[in-house]
Specification:
By secondary structure, the protein is an alpha+beta fold. The chain folds into two domains: 96 residues, 2-Layer Sandwich (Phosphorylase Kinase, domain 1); 222 residues, Aminoglycoside 3'-phosphotransferase, Chain: A, domain 2 (Alpha-Beta Complex), CATH 3.90.1200. It has eleven helices and nine strands. β4 and β5 form a beta hairpin. It is globular, with a radius of gyration of 22 Å.
Length: 331
């Protein structure tokens, strides 16, 4: 398989004006293919974008926009035709500058400060990006209510699956405890619709910012005392607090508790570069109320069919209760 992937890279790289000296497979899974190749100008990166073509075009041009603006994302090297990508079969392939650096450690306060500051820069610097006519606008602005409804319906559907295995400890626990959390999810939807959210969406549509959607230690690097953001494949237009929630809530969930000092540190670090108004913070707190971590735990079992211990489900229930108790004080 390695040999086949290297041959594929060599076949593709003839489309670029690069003197390829060696090729190494960095990631060879089904979801993404990434190669590092050496040239006389240093290392470069070849990547297969594992997204539908139109969504891929949105993110490719977004990254090119940010790099040319001076944002610390890997620059895209055009092919011989001047295009930002080469199409091979159903996939688009892109060559980037290779960034050497170390990953961040979210248990280190200084690293956490870097992570949040980088996210603020990403949100502010991306304002002004307009995708080319060939790329449809990829946006989640205004779609949160449907997002909530779908997940509440899914949690209801999983009850039907659990009822078929009443003697299974995980299913038994799920059926016993889930109803108040589904009700809480629906109550969160009501709070969102009555909040500043609709107005903020209207404002943001006039000058939207990008959300990374997969921001964290896997897609950031510290290089020469600067943070670099990589892998923009899933980027979309949305309120910036979507990324904040997707960084903060899982980190809190991993510890199994709500660490207020950690939360304050992360938010303060972010607001150094992108301050939020009280109304915007209120929307963020409401969104964080939704039982996302519980949903993900149940999805692992009922959706992805993975073996999850009932203790993990109980921990998710307990975390959601502690999280709600803390956030309710802000609301």
């Amino acid at each position: 398989m390695q040999e086949k992937l290297i041959k594929l890279a060599e076949l593709l790289l003839v489309n670029w004006n690069v003197n390829v000296q060696s090729v190494e497979v960095i990631q060879g899974g089904q979801m993404a293919l990434v190669w590092k190749f050496m040239t006389d100008e240093g290392p470069k990166c070849l990547k297969r974008i594992h997204r539908p073509e139109k969504k891929a075009l949105f993110s490719i041009h977004a990254q090119d926009y940010l790099a040319k603006k001076g944002m610390r994302v890997p620059g895209i090297i055009p092919n011989k035709d001047g295009s930002l990508y080469t199409k091979h079969g159903p996939f688009l392939f892109v060559v980037y500058e290779w960034i050497e650096g170390r990953p961040f450690n979210l248990t280190v306060p200084e690293d956490l400060h870097w992570i949040m500051k980088g996210l603020a820069d990403y949100h502010t610097e991306s304002i002004g990006y307009t995708p080319p006519p060939a790329a449809p606008v990829f946006t989640k602005l205004g779609k949160w209510p449907k997002h909530y409804i779908k997940r509440c319906q899914q949690m209801e559907t999983w009850k039907l699956i659990a009822q078929k295995s009443p003697d299974d400890p995980f299913c038994h626990l799920y059926l016993k405890e889930i109803d108040p959390f589904i009700a809480s999810g629906r109550e969160t939807l009501k709070k969102l619709q009555e909040s500043h959210y609709p107005e903020w969406v209207r404002q943001c549509k006039k000058q939207p910012n990008l959300c990374h959607q997969d921001y964290g230690t896997g897609n950031t690097l510290l290089s020469e005392n600067q943070i670099w953001i990589i892998d923009l494949d899933t980027t979309t237009f949305d309120l910036p607090i979507r990324d904040l929630r997707k960084v903060i809530i899982p980190l809190m969930g991993d510890s199994g508790t709500w660490n207020q000092a950690l939360f304050d540190h992360m938010l303060a670090s972010y607001e150094e570069g992108a301050p939020l108004t009280p109304e915007q913070k209120q929307v963020m707190y409401i969104d964080m109320l939704f039982p996302y971590e519980l949903y993900e735990t149940a999805s692992e079992r009922f959706g992805r069919k993975n073996e999850i211990m009932p203790e993990e489900l109980m921990a998710a229930f307990e975390y959601e209760n502690r999280k709600t108790e803390q956030l309710s004080q802000f609301l």
